[in-house]
Amino acid sequence: MNTSSRRTLTTTQRENPPMCQHQPACPSAESADREAARLAAHHPEQGWSLLCNGVLLFEDTGELLPDGQIIAPHRPSGTGQVMTAA
């Protein structure tokens, strides 16, 4: 048996296809407008959504980025002056 024809390449990193397969592509997880990405999974009963750029978005407006970075909740201030239509 010829073992030279049975070579296997080994890598230390696993390549995953990008989650965002549509055009135009969503903003990356590193961009300032990352929350504008499309929903990949939505679980309001658990309080979180997964965006197609890999960002976990929580209902308290906190975020967990794909690299593990935590973005603290950032609810808009001044919500006491919200007006409703009559």
From TrEMBL:
Q: Which InterPro entries match?
A: DUF5999
**From start to end residue, where is composition biased (Basic and acidic residues)?**
31-42
The superkingdom of the source organism is Bacteria
**Region spans: Disordered:** 1-42
Where are stretches of biased composition, namely Low complexity? 1-12
Classification via Pfam families: DUF5999
Q: What is this protein called?
A: DUF5999 family protein
Q: Which organism is it from?
A: Streptomyces niveus (Streptomyces spheroides)
